[in-house]
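Hi,

I'm pasting everything inline rather than attaching a file, because the server keeps stripping attachments. The sequence lines come first, and each chain or strand is labelled.
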Amino acid sequence: MSALRVYVEGVGLWSPQLAGFASLRQLLAGHAPPPPPPPPRPEAAMLPPNERRRAPESVRLAVEVASQAVAMSGRDGSTLACVFASSHGDQAITDYMCASLARAAAELSPIRFHNSVHNAPVGYWTIANGCHAPSTAVAAQRASFGAGLLEAATQVLAGQCPVLLVCSDTEGYGPLREVTGCTQSFGCALLLAPGAGPATLARLELQLGPAPATSALDEPLAGWSAANPAAASLPLLALLASADGRCHIAAGASLGLQLDLTGIDPLESVA
Amino acid sequence: MPKPMTPLAITAYTATSALGHGVAAQLDAFGHGRSGLRPNDISRSPLDCWIGRVGGVEDTALPEAMAAWECRNNRLAWLGLNQDGFLRQVEAARRRHGSARIALLLGTSTASIGATEEAYRRLDPDGGLPDDMLRPALHAPHSLTAFVAAALALDGPCLTISTACSSSAKVFASAERMLRLGLVDAAVVGGVDSLCDSVLFGFNALELVSSSPCRPFGAARDGISIGEAAGFALLERAALAPDAPQLLGYGEATDAYHMSTPHPQGLGAELALDEALARAGLRTTQVDYINLHGTASQKNDEVEAVLVNRRFGAATRASSTKGYTGHTLGAAGIVEAVVALQAIEHGLIPGNLGGDSPDPACGASFAWRNERQRVEVALSNSFGFGGNNACLAFARAGFAA
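And the predicted assembly:
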């Protein structure tokens, strides 16, 4: 199989330490002082105020990083196919559901139930953007980013259309936290396109293979990566932030992705 | 609109639901008009409703090496995999293509959340999960797919699609893209969802559950009956199996309207239909049968009936089979894909059980009783929360649009 080649036009990022992709760039460039942390909750400013108030944490996180990536690309969010990946969905809601069912099942909140579906973030995103394009919500345990990236890249190439990829997991909550191991939130987004254009940041080539060791990271990225499955994206985000190069991430229990990234100056690609 | 796609062969398929284990049981139930619904006997506290419960799940044991995956949802998955020679067919495909060249793409809405519910019912005195439930892979949406990947010894792309009730229809679309791009030579697709308190009390909280057996497209319908099911299909390139039925097309679209209510004009459903027809290279007049989403909720059936009337003539027959199986949520896509494939294989259009007093909004397309006729082309509709819509198009082997 030849490599799958797609083009990155936008990047979104949010964690308790990083307000966006610019913060990661700043951190990796070694600028002092380190970038200031964002407010404690993702802003998700593009949600209408009513929706934002009601939106669960998983929705705010996914919408925040999706908005950043789409804004960077200059694309119209109403036209973009969406692949939203998450290993655990909204853990606070899962905790609420399971605790309520154990206590008083008949009192379950209807809103929390409809917000519990794995595709709630992409549902809210498409409603806020008036987007009728195909949208999907996926999971693959610790490999959700790699498997989601593969799904998004196949959509880009099979449909010859841009695709918004989001991968995010909220902080673990209640007794569940012990088994999900999510000790902090992390979300990222990539706007992927089939060809180079004025907004292109980099060319990305994906090659499937047996699961190799995933790329090592320096601190603090290594710690962040261990604290949230969505942060398995950090080797690629670090390449995007600093240089060209190659990294390896997991796409499944026995499947790996070799990612080759080549930076493109947006001005060059116009010619 | 998308360009026509090269059809794919469906070289094996199976479904296990309240109608029984495997495709023969399902066909037999349709033939005799026998519903699989029964009064709710599974929720941990009483709930006055009917359910589509699969018999024998409790007696199904996972292979010993798979013991860590033990839970109702994975037992149902294993029961489903063991029907209709499906395991043998996957084994043969693995020999043909190699384990890394077969994708595994499964849909589920709640995976093994039932196990997480159980863990919360018997938390340790210190508030933690009990020791026997400290199985991280079980408390995650990917639990089903990871279990099936291990059970089938597959090493290719492996993904859970969880878009509520369209989940196991959308797996066909992902499979087609991976085959077309040459990432894999085959794909195991399907879905499993099992009865648990989350969905029974969740849909009940939304006032979407009927206290009677559900009546899709009935004038007096008052909600859904929740069911459980497991279904699987094996997709390969058509040249490899010229005599197999085919996936002709698929469409996916989003309502962008409301989290738990369909678009009032069925906008996303119609976009998905148009995409499926375009990929299949079909005109609406070539469609013989549509297995409708038809949940028996007020809104879904109203919108879907109007869409059928607007786009199809009386020669296209349409019915919901949820009066037989209940709404199997994330497994509905694959179970009803199997209904569409059985209609093609056996020339049986199952009557719309529960529609004895039809909603007057339903037009001449609706098949209220079983009909026997040759079916060349069949569609299946699946719609989910979040305004997530999918439509699949299947055809008899050798069909040329």
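Chain A has one domain: 7-197.

If the labels don't parse on your end, tell me and I'll reformat.
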